[in-house]
Specification:
Layout lengths: L1 E5 L5 E5 L3 E5 L2 E7 L2 H8 L5 E6 L3 E6 L5 E4 L4 E6 L1 E6 L1
Antiparallel strand pairs: 1-2, 1-5, 3-4, 4-8, 5-6, 6-9, 7-8
């Protein structure tokens, strides 16, 4: 499960089971399907986002210190380019 949360107050912006995380050089590209309207709401807070990939045995925290996001209109996906990753066992 992927959770997209506000860094201040931990407000949940979006939750999905459908996502992909790919390592690309020194960043991780996190992509997930989302409507344009919801993506634009998240975009407003792009400098204050935390993303959590939750699995059975661990939770992985990602964030983008550059606030790098891209909405792919053709595929209706939001791409977050994270440069920080921390893994926590649960």
């Amino acid at each position: 499960m992927l959770l997209v949360r506000h860094a201040i107050g931990s407000r949940l912006f979006y939750q999905t089971e459908h996502y992909e995380i790919k390592k690309n050089e020194d960043k991780w590209i996190i992509s997930f399907p989302i409507s344009y309207e919801k993506a634009m709401n998240i975009q407003k807070f792009k400098e204050e986002l935390n993303l959590f990939a939750v699995e059975d045995t661990q939770k992985t925290w990602y964030y983008s210190s550059d606030a790098e996001l891209l909405f792919d209109k053709d595929n209706e996906q939001l791409l977050v380019f994270a440069d920080h990753k921390t893994v926590y066992p649960i």
